[in-house]
Amino acid sequence: MGMDKKWWLSKLQSMFTEVFGLGRAATLSAALLTFAVIVLGVFLFFHLAPPNKIIMTSGPKGSTFEKSAEKYSKILKQKGVTLKILPSEGSVENIKRLADPSSKVNVGFVQGGVYKDMKTDRLVSLGSVSYAPLFVFYRSGSNMERLSQLAGQRIAVGEVGSGTHILSLVLLAANGIEPGGPTKLLEADSDEAAKAILSGKVDAVFLMGDSVSTDLIRQLLHTDGIRLFDFTQADAFTRRIAYLNKITLPKGSIDFGKGTPAHDVFLLAPTVELIARENLHPALSDLLLEAAVEVHSGPGLFRGKGEFPAPIEQEIRISNDASRFYKSGKSFFYRYLPFWLASLVNLIIVVLVPMIVLLLPGLRLIPAMYRWRFRSRIFKWYRALMVIERDLLTELAPDKRKELLEKLDNIEEEVNRMKVPASFADQFYGLRGHITFVHTRLMSENHPH
Fold first, then answer.
1. For residues 408 and 439, what is the distance between their CA atoms, to the nearest angstrom?
2. What is the DSSP letter of 349?
């Protein structure tokens, strides 16, 4: 078996030597280069291929975040990509998961304004997909104009770690209400807070639109003695707190028949961003944004048609892939081909074309270097012959003639030992002919010219 292997290797070497004019070293170099490029290409082919699975951290059960994630999942499934949804407590847990290197989460919904003390340098934004309106309901027989009027009362400010909790504390602090003071701040989720104000256990509640249902908002608006706070100072808040936006709950938009609300109500709302790891594959970024367009671009209670998704940047920078998508849409192949086929074509262009560009010049360079090396060996012996010929121009003593003959014999012996591919036969035999020519002159009677 070992002899057969050696025989085949010898035959292969002979083929390259005789047919392609390559010696053993050149053949081995070409084979190693080809092997290295193929291995690199295979690695890049699988490494650069877009994954067929994305993990999204969404939000509390029944929240807008969770419902949106489910819509994304259905859209991506049609493209052959599985979206695994991980429920969470809300924006704060989402950003923590995304910022944690040990977490396998790829993307998630995050409310603006919750990034304080978070390490987000390895995260990017795919843009804002909606507003997260803040509803403040309070028990009173008359309208309240300022949040500072809630001082000394019982206020449900959302669960610790939720976007509701963070934003409510910021707004209350701006109105002189701090934890630990005479005002009692209660931590409760949306459902508990709504039940508490309906039963009279609290005087006011802060509810975020992403975690409370429209039915619950409608119930609170229709309950006697409970009013929705109108942020008449909304413009001032948005100038003081950069991530907030002023939005309007239009007159009658909750219930046309009953005209609820009875007038336009100004609300404050951070935007909800689609945040991803910076290593998210460009094809998946396009796919997620395509789903975002389908889910969020329609008109809604707090948005106009086509208003979202939008490249609204808050604390986290918009990714380059997202910026390109907003300017020109999906990349060429993903625009006209099915996702799997576009991925394949894109990989062929990204991987195979550079492989060919790298391999062809390399395979051309190896024979060129080999030829240069062989010619340099030929020229070495020609230089030695020229030195001997120059000595023939002078009268030679017998000892000198003998010395030159020994040098010439050594040159001839070394040349005859050379392993020469067929492609260099003309140069090899030319050298041997010139050695014979100098030998003939050296043996003949020396006459200076």
1. 7
2. I
- CA 410 – CA 407 distance, rounded (Å): 5
143-201: pLDDT as tens digits: 899 999 999 999 999 988 788 999 999 999 999 999 988 999 999 888 899 999 999 99
Give domain status of residue 32, yes or no: yes
Residue 254, number of CB atoms within 10 A of its CB: 20
Residues in the chain: 449
Least confident of 33-47, 222-236, 409-423: 33-47
Token pair for 131: 């507003």
Note the pTM of the prediction, 2 decimals: 0.68
Domain count, the chain: 1
Q: Which two tokens stand for residue 98?
A: 């995304």
Q: What is the dihedral of CA 406, 410, 413, 414, to 10 degrees?
A: -170
395 occurs within a structural domain: yes
Q: DSSP letters of 231-247? A: -TTHHHHHHHSTTEEEE
pLDDT digits (tens, 9 = 90+) for 97-122: 999 989 999 999 999 988 877 888 89
Instruction: Reduce the secondary structure of 55-81 to three states and give it as a string.
Output: EEECCCCCCHHHHHHHHHHHHHHHCCC
Domain containing 383 equals 2-42+347-443
In a domain, 161, yes or no: no
Domain annotation covers residue 16 = yes
